[in-house]
Structure formats: structure tokens, C-alpha cells
Amino acid sequence: MDLQPLIEGIVEQALDDVSELGGEGDPVDLVPHLARPVASHTISVMLGLDEDDHAVLHRISSPRFDLMGSGSGPFGSISDAIDHFLDIVRRQREHPGPGLIGRLVRDHGTELTDTEIAGLADGLWTGGLESTASAIALGGHLLATDPAAACVLREGGPDGVDGWVEELLRYSSVVQVAFPRVALTEGELGGEQILAGDLVVCSLSAANRDARFGDSAAHFMPDRAPRSHLAFGHGLHRCIGAELARVELRAVLPRLAVRFPRLRAAEPSLVTGEQLSFIYGLPAVPVLLDGG
Ligand code: HEM
């Protein structure tokens, strides 16, 4: 399945909605009207979900990364989503859908259990939703608050877009820590003595501010010379959706910049980071479209 044109269609639809909501000079929040719809519709199309299933999963997934309340928020959300994916897999065994779930059912039959396919679908849904939505929201916030950066994205051509997106990924580091690793042998790492069996948690946001990025590491510089970053982690468990996330970011952010050249933050003082979450993000990005 060629996802790129489908993603471009999803982006255009979301931008039409944004345009309609903000057409009269009203503020529009880019989180529920652009970032989340683009991220969730993309995974939904990839998995082959219908609109009803997409809507259910979208609703039950919100508390998944919210660590402010008790564990019942995230844990309840995870088990509800897995139950719903199990239901989808059972239905798609009868009528395989057009996406990944249908393909696994068709190509692998009973080689894979319902629980395995539901778990895989849930992993992709979880991995791709909040992370990508946060990156889109942070990119939208940058466009609305940094006119010079917006100009680079509008006028930089395809290479400029790629550089801008890579810098956004490095600078925002939305997934702040890699999955914990267990040390198999003892050794020294960054001046720390690690023993076999120790749990090692790597801060990706700190790595992405490493001195090797220079004095400007703490700043967003879209024309920075290309240098690999760790926003998607490293090694065997590096993000499996990295290329998909890049396609989404390269589709949505330049279109947002070109379509609304006078985009600006509606209430900059109200923009705050998520209070406590695995993912670095903004709960709301209110913008004005006309710059008025
Ligand atoms: C800007 C968007 C994204 C960022 C910054 C991001 C970042 C990450 C990071 C840091 C990891 C852990 C890597 C490690 O521990 O070495 C990870 C794992 C993962 N991501 Fe993403 N991700 C993004 C989008 C996506 C998307 C779109 C999908 C799927 C549709 C996805 C699916 C996954 C999965 C399944 C894993 C687990 C991989 C494994 O355990 O082998 N991610 N991601």
C-alpha cells in the first residue's frame, strides 16, 4: 500500500477543517484539529480500520500517556484498546480489511493468534499516535512563533523541508527516553560503572543536546548541517515507524506553512508543556490563521 498519497489526502482534509474553523479570525487549536487527526488517521489507514473503529480507539487512547492521575488511566486505556483490537481482528478474520491487519490475517492465517495480531496493532497504534501528534503540534507551534523558521520551511524546497523536519525531531525529542535496556555484562558508560543486570535508561533529549551539536544545540536551527540524532532511538529497538513519521511531518508542516503564511500564536502565554507524560508535547496550540 502506497501510504504517501493517502497521508497527503488526510493532511489536506485536516487543513480544510482548520481553515474553516479559523476562517472568521477565531483561534484554532492545532492539537485536536490537525496534529491528532493526521497522526491517528494515518495509523488507522495503515492498519485498515474503518471510521467507527478509528473513532472508538481515538477516544479510549487519550489517557494512555497521562501519568498525572492513578495508574488506572493509562492501564485502563491499554486494556480497553487491546480488547477493541481483539474484536477487530476477529471481525477481519471473516472479512479481511485493506490494511496491515487484513494482510496478516490473509497471509498468515492461524500462524499468528488473535492476541498476537491485536498486540502488534496496538503497538503500532500506541507507538505512532502520541509521538507523531506531539511532533506535529510542536512543529505547528514553531511555525506560529518563529517567522524566520516558517520562512525556511516555505521557501527551502524539498531539501529544506527534510532539514527542517530532522531539526524538529532532534530539537523536540518528543520521546524523551529510549526503552530501558538491561546490561548483559559489566562495563563503563559515560563515566558510570554499570553492572551486569543493571537497568540502563538513556535520555534521548540529553543525547540530542550533546556538545557535538555545538553551542547552538539548545536552539532550533533548521539550516543546521545534517548530523544524525537519536530522536528515534538506536539499535534493534529503534523506532519501526520512523520513516512513516517522517512522511507525515514532511507532508503536514510545509503545507501548514504555505497555506497559512501569516499563522501566529493566539495566546502564547497559555502554551505550556504536558504536565507529566512519557511524551514531550503541548496539550494545546491555539493559533490565528490570518495573523490579524
Ligand atoms: C515523531 C514520531 C516518533 C518518534 C519521535 C518515535 C520515537 C520512538 C523511540 C525513541 C522509540 C524507542 C527506541 C529505542 O528504545 O531505541 C520508538 C519505538 C517504537 N516506535 Fe516510534 N516514534 C515515532 C513514531 C512512530 C510511528 C508513526 C510508529 C508506528 C506507526 C511508531 C512505532 C514504534 C514502535 C512499534 C516502537 C517499538 C520498536 C521496538 O520495540 O522494536 N513510532 N519510537
Please describe the topology of this protein.
Layout: H1 3-22, E1 28-29, H2 30-47, H3 51-61, H4 72-94, H5 100-108, H6 114-145, H7 147-155, H8 157-172, E2 181-182, E3 187-189, E4 192-194, E5 199-200, H9 204-207, H10 242-259, E6 264-265, E7 286-288
Antiparallel strand pairs: 1-7, 2-5, 3-4, 6-7
The structure holds protoporphyrin IX containing FE.
Protoporphyrin IX containing FE is lined by residues 43, 123-124, 127-128, 131-132, 135, 174-175, 178-179, 204, 231-235, 237-241, 244-245.
Tag the structure with descriptive keywords.
292 residues, mainly alpha, Cytochrome p450, 3-stranded antiparallel sheet, two-stranded antiparallel ribbon, 7 strands, 55% helix, binds protoporphyrin IX containing FE
Describe this structure in words.
With 292 residues, the chain is mainly alpha-helical. It has a single domain (3-174, 238-281), classed as Orthogonal Bundle (Cytochrome p450). It has helices at 3-22, 30-47, 51-61, 72-94, 100-108, 114-145, 147-155, 157-172, 204-207, 242-259, and strands at residues 28-29, 181-182, 187-189, 192-194, 199-200, 264-265, 286-288. The strands form three sheets. The chain has a three-stranded antiparallel sheet. Strands 2-5 form a two-stranded antiparallel ribbon. Strands 3-4 form a two-stranded antiparallel sheet. A hairpin with a 2-residue loop joins strand 3 and strand 4 (192-194). The longest helix has 32 residues, at 114-145. The protein binds protoporphyrin IX containing FE (HEM). Protoporphyrin IX containing FE binds at residues 43, 123-124, 127-128, 131-132, 135, 174-175, 178-179, 204, 231-235, 237-241, 244-245.
